[in-house]
Specification:
mainly beta; 2 helices; Immunoglobulin-like; 7% helix; single chain; 6 domains; 6-stranded mixed β-sheet
């Protein structure tokens, strides 16, 4: 439109206003389009080749699933990153039976082609078959140009159920982990294998138990970090949701934190339907977080009926005991939901289990399998607590054992990944099985002893039961100004460290109503550089984790130490003896600095070429004030 300046001015303003409105609408439309495009990229599904260009290898490709294990009929969401952009890959998933089918639910033979996005990412969903289920380990391979395998991983369908407690431990520490494998699917189990993550060392098995059959001693491969046991007699683990395997593993944890690296934290628990461990595999991957402290954490303690903490309870073998374990929410935020408590394998399976929450939601689900109490469906607030009370009877070789716990941020199960782990204080609590009553005696010889002389202490230890005493130890700090010479005893290993003698029993547990061989400790009395009479005291204490009555665990011996007198030149009577004299007498009397007195009289008899003498030593006199 042509007009004068005023019209142009008005028309120009109107045009600019219209242009501004148009720009806003275009911006909104563009934003919507970009959002839709991004949504489509993030939810790209399997399709025919969209570009027809196979992806070349970048060397940075990774593939992952949203879970490690699934139930039959579940949807597996697969993601990837690090691929070349805008090109095609083939997602090949091999089922446990060796077949390869598409993931759209038709279960037609073949694989699916997926196009990567602008950033080299991919998304793909795979539907698991439910009727009949195809259970076991699935293998995902992402294929690129010339069918090169760009990335690979595995996941599991309908696996058995594994627990490891504690689920958190410090770095470079020796820890006993209680592991439980519950059979929930598959054939009869005849072989169990545990593989620890990289970084664990000094692996051993503290105890094992099985719900059915006779099983071999564990075979441990330190290099591969594996533990294998196999059925040797009877029926294996056949009944779903009933049978179980319990293997408690002691190991030194990795020296560096594992962080939220799932693969680096996950234990591999496998079962097989043959004894050699090759067929019918089922598995699970319970994580154990090492070193990293989580925002949601827990403090775990034993408590008595009044809620007071108990450091190290002692239980008599064969007698039912009431045990209370308290899990308190600590850290900076709440989040504890599922938790479990594992008792030693030599304790009876817990009964009369109650779960009391103070500050949180009650636990409605309590499952007891062998020595594992599993609690789900509740929650512990920050600063709140859950007290698990139960009855159990120890039938153990006297010693110390562990009660472990594995709190989780998962609602109804142990953590499925370290992002659900909870760091703990007291994740493994020490309990003594076997009740003993030790006593100790101590004697000294000689008493009194001369300064600089040899002084010997004899120590006796007895156990009045009713159970054996384990790890019996005697500690004796020798008196000041004495010098250690030796410490010995049959079935004792004695070591002196700066005047403290520690003797550990090496003869195994000390039986009830039995005396241990004596311990002999030899020292040199205070030196002759000092004078006067003194009294020194020496105490020894005996201990055992099984003894909770310390009133008779210490014995003391007191010894008089004095300076011996020295004799003076004797006086002869008569003063000038002659030959053939028959009544010659030589005598001397002296006193030492601390009041002791000694007299010696000698009357020789020449006819028999021998002499007699008498020695008298009255009690030391008290020096005048």
């Amino acid at each position: 439109m042509v007009s004068d300046g005023a019209g142009t001015s008005v028309g120009g303003a109107a045009a600019r206003k219209g242009a501004t409105g148009m720009t806003g609408r275009l911006a909104v439309a563009l934003l919507v389009a970009l959002t839709l495009f991004a949504f489509q990229l993030s939810h790209a599904q399997s399709s025919s080749a969209a570009t027809g260009v196979p992806c070349p290898q970048t060397g940075n490709e990774v593939v992952a699933t949203d879970q490690r294990s699934y139930e039959p009929g579940s949807l597996v969401h697969v993601t990837g990153m690090g691929y070349a952009p805008n090109c095609d890959v083939v997602v090949k998933i091999t089922r446990p039976d060796g077949s390869v089918v598409t993931g759209d639910g038709s279960f037609a033979p073949g694989s699916d082609t997926v196009t990567t996005d602008l950033f080299g990412g991919l998304n793909y969903d795979y539907l698991l078959q439910s009727i009949p289920p195809v259970e076991g380990t699935y293998v995902i391979e992402v294929l690129g140009l010339s069918d090169t395998v760009l990335a690979r991983m595995t996941f599991h369908d309908a696996n058995n159920d594994a627990n490891v407690a504690p689920g958190w431990a410090a770095t470079n520490s020796t820890v006993t982990f209680s592991s439980l494998y519950r059979k929930t699917t598959g054939g009869t189990v005849q072989h169990v294998r545990i593989t620890l993550p990289v970084g664990y060392s000094s692996i051993s098995v503290a105890a094992s138990a099985f719900s059915s059959g006779t099983w071999s001693a564990p075979t441990i491969n330190q290099t591969n970090r594996t533990i294998d046991v196999q059925l040797t007699g009877g029926t294996g683990l056949a009944t779903n949701n009933v049978d179980w395997a319990r293997i408690d593993v002691t190991a030194t944890t990795p020296t560096i934190p594992t962080g939220n690296n799932g693969n680096g934290s996950e234990w591999l628990m496998q079962t097989f339907t043959d004894t050699v461990g090759t067929a019918g595999e089922q598995n699970d991957n319970p994580p154990v977080l090492i070193g990293d402290v989580t925002d949601t954490s827990a403090a775990i303690t034993f408590v008595d009926g009044s809620g007071n903490a108990i450091a190290n309870p002692v239980f008599q073998n064969g007698i039912a005991a009431t045990v209370r374990v308290r899990i308190t929410g600590t850290g900076t935020k709440a989040g504890i939901k599922y938790t479990d408590v594992a008792v030693p394998t030599c304790f009876s399976s817990p009964s009369s289990v109650t779960a009391t929450v103070s500050g949180g939601n009650p636990y409605g689900s309590v499952l007891v399998t062998d020595g594992f109490i599993r609690l789900g469906g509740g929650a512990i607030n920050l600063g709140g607590s859950l007290t698990v009370q139960f009855s159990t009877t120890p039938n153990c070789t006297s010693g110390t054992y562990l009660v472990s716990s594995d709190p989780s941020q998962n609602a109804s199960n142990p953590p499925s990944g370290t992002n659900q782990s909870v760091s703990t204080t007291g994740g493994s609590l020490t309990v003594a099985a076997g009740l003993a009553d030790l006593s100790i005696t101590k004697t000294d010889s000689p008493d009194p002893v001369a300064r600089g002389g040899t002084l010997t202490y004899t120590i006796g230890v007895r156990n009045d039961g009713p159970d054996d005493a384990s790890a019996v130890k005697v500690v004796d700090t020798i008196p000041a100004n004495t010098t250690f010479v030796s410490a010995t005893g049959t079935n004792w290993n004695c070591v002196n460290a700066s005047g403290t003698v520690t003797c550990n029993r090496t003869g195994g547990n000390l039986a009830a109503s039995a005396d241990a061989p004596n311990i002999t400790i030899t020292v040199t009395a205070p030196p002759t550089t000092s004078t006067g009479t003194i009294t020194i005291s020496n105490s020894a204490t005996v201990s055992s984790p099984n003894d909770n009555t310390p009133g008779n665990n210490t014995a003391t011996a007191s010894t008089v130490v004095s300076t011996p007198p020295s004799l003076t030149t004797p006086t002869l009577s008569p003063a000038s003896p002659t030959t053939n004299i028959t009544n010659l007498t030589a005598s001397t009397t002296t006193s030492d600095v601390d009041g002791d007195q000694i007299s010696v009289t000698c009357r020789p008899r020449s006819t028999r070429a021998r002499a007699t003498s008498s020695l008298s030593r009255p009690h030391p006199r008290t020096p005048p004030a």
